[in-house]
Design a protein that fits this description.
It is a single chain. The chain has 300 residues and is an alpha+beta fold. Helices cover 62% and strands 11% of the residues. The chain is built from 9 helices and 7 strands; from the N terminus they run αααβββαββββααααα. It has helices spanning 2-10, 12-27, 33-42, 78-81, 123-129, 137-175, 183-209, 222-249, 255-299; strands at residues 46-52, 62-64, 68-69, 90-92, 96-97, 104-111, 116-122. Strands 1, 2, 3, 4, 5, 6 and 7 form a 7-stranded antiparallel beta sheet that branches. Helix 6 runs antiparallel to helix 7.
Length: 300
């Protein structure tokens, strides 16, 4: 989302000229059926159009690419006007998240005979049409399908791992009830922990690479990545603890390998700790930059 906004801000004048010059050629025809058909055909990035009176009270339904919605009729939408300034009876708002589609959009407002006409444009689709961001629809659908397959496979194996843990525990209890050991508990716990890690990874892949309609998703989800690493490390720690018990009860010669495993885990914890600190610094810096940008916009 931040990348789209930065690209828009850098090319704002070009985008405004394109939208105003193209819309004003069709604007005199109003929001009739023929005019809307031409507009949606001319602008694949146009999501919605609707009209208001001079007091910004919505008069028309929200005309969509397929059908229309009566949402908002009779309501004032003056809050949207505060996102920009009128110049020569026309205005373009700053990008915002649409409540109707959940996507990042910007709205063009033009003066009409009955009041004002509003046009909502999908920002990503608009930037793709202007060649400001890469957009290859067929390849994008292919990559989403591949990511969906891989994410679903991870979720499947996560469920299988959890079920295997329960089945292993139940089978071991029923078959060796007189020879209960710590391995009977540790193995299912490791299976469930790995299942949790696989599920988090598959869920993150699907959320970010398949369901990208929501522009609120950031490009990097540190929380999910840290959760995945934590689950893996917990499983390794449980395995190391089980190895310590096995070595102490049977073969002390294996303690050297167990010590090497524990030392490796300690190094892994050290690296992950520094990674989390770096993510925290990056998030605080990004938050400070966003606050600074908002303050600059308020001043302007």
């Amino acid at each position: 989302m931040q990348t789209l906004i930065k690209v828009y801000e850098h090319n704002k004048n070009l985008i405004e000229k394109f939208l105003f010059s193209t819309l004003e050629k069709q604007h005199g025809k109003g929001l009739g059926a023929e005019a809307l058909h031409n507009l949606f055909g001319l602008f694949p990035c146009l999501e919605a159009a609707y009209g208001t009176d001079d007091g910004f009270k919505q008069l028309t339904p929200v005309y969509l690419r397929r059908g229309q919605s009566d949402r908002g009729i009779g309501e004032e939408i003056s809050g949207l006007i505060n996102r920009g300034d009128f110049t020569d009876d026309r205005m373009i708002t700053e990008p915002y998240i649409s409540l109707m589609s959940g996507r990042l959009v910007l709205t063009v407002v033009l003066k009409s005979d009955t009041g004002y006409d509003f046009y909502d444009f999908n920002l990503r689709a608009l930037l793709e049409r202007l060649g400001l961001v890469p957009g290859h629809r067929r390849f994008s659908l292919f990559t989403r399908g591949v990511y969906l397959l891989m994410g679903s496979a991870l979720i499947f194996f996560a469920i299988f791992s959890v079920l295997y843990g329960f089945a292993y525990f139940w089978w071991d209890i029923c078959s060796h009830s007189r020879h209960f050991s710590l391995e009977t508990i540790f193995k299912p716990v490791i299976a469930v922990t790995l299942g949790l890690a696989f599920f988090d990874l598959g869920k993150t892949i699907i959320n970010h690479e398949v369901f990208r309609a929501s522009e609120t998703l950031e490009a990097f989800d540190a929380k999910s990545f840290v959760t995945f690493l934590t689950s893996i490390m917990i499983a390794l720690l449980i395995e190391a603890l089980l190895s310590v018990f096995k070595a102490s009860l049977s073969a002390f010669s294996d303690l050297l390998y167990v010590a090497a495993l524990i030392a490796s885990l300690a190094l892994l914890f050290f690296v992950v700790n520094h990674f989390i600190r770096g993510v925290g610094i990056w998030e605080r810096r990004t938050s400070a930059e966003n606050k600074g940008n908002r303050r600059e916009n308020d001043v302007v």
